[in-house]
């Protein structure tokens, strides 16, 4: 009789769920802070400093183009850091990602300007932005998995996974607060000469805190189980998680790209395009429009947690469908609300859009993790999300601006957003009840 060896006993870590959520969330907040700092400063200051031109619009466009570069590097970071996340462990790539993001952000704060070193200055700035995008590409998947793969989160993965989604609006609010405070404590001339460096250099303190917390974590419970299985059956270990993912999970890869398209399109439609629409067609100042987005970020944060909690009480796709349908319908009303000229009516439009996006984004982290089996989960979660970000985050403003300019109406822009929501809905409904939440 051939004996059959028993599977490895489940392995749990000494990490409390509270510590894991805090460590993952703190690091992710810092990474989003760094990411948003660059975006905001690109729009406000970096153009004349690194891309001087007689035409201010040209300088600003060049700086914003540098900001956009990161979107297209993020999938590469997802594949490379995802590979090590599936082969070596979830924690190590998270530490590397935080270091890369933090160091590149601090270097931006120390860069010489165009007037000092010429073309070398914008070259170094673009390089720093590439590193930022690479780091953020590998951050998302690992931070999510450290939380949802903790055994203590088993019955509430949706709620605890939503805290990682909440890191984005918190990072945005933190970045906005630091920039605002810096502006209040310096003159416009000081801000243009040396004040712009302060928000970047402030990152050093936060990165130190984040590294201290993350280095104290053990591996996730699910990855420890994977390690035990690999030791028992070395022949089953895949050397290339990315290609294994494409072979074994083609439908899930498609879902992991199409479903997040809705989040990225809705988020950037609201926080970037609608922001400029409020200035140009609503008659609001930049400060007024920015304050609307800050208020809406609170709505976003709240409904992220609501959506995550809801997804533990119902199938994950239920609150996500409500978010997609709600945004697809409300986006047609958001533009008239903003162009009404009423501050609170316009603010409500921003809050409404991000509330529906929160319902979609809240369950998304756990939903993505449950698509893939453990051996390719880091790569699968990271790659799909970042490809969607590169497509929707990079192209949404580019498509929306000419649509409005050519037609003179907001309806085609809203129609474009609604079509993307339908695409995301189609991906969500594809094998909607199938889960690959397993360790092997």
From TrEMBL:
Topology class, membrane: Multi-pass membrane protein
InterPro entries associated with the record: MFS, MFS_dom, MFS_trans_sf
Record flagged with keyword NAD: no
Record's subcellular location: Cell membrane
Annotated TM spans: 32-51, 57-82, 94-112, 124-148, 160-184, 196-215, 257-277, 289-310, 317-337, 343-362, 383-405, 411-430
Pfam families in UniProt: MFS_1 (PF07690)
Keywords annotated in UniProt: Cell membrane, Membrane, Transmembrane, Transmembrane helix, Transport
CDD domains attached to this UniProt entry: MFS_ShiA_like (cd17369)
Segments forming domain Major facilitator superfamily (MFS) profile: 20-435
Name listed for the protein in its UniProt record: MFS transporter
Lineage: Bacteria, Bacillati, Actinomycetota, Actinomycetes, Kitasatosporales
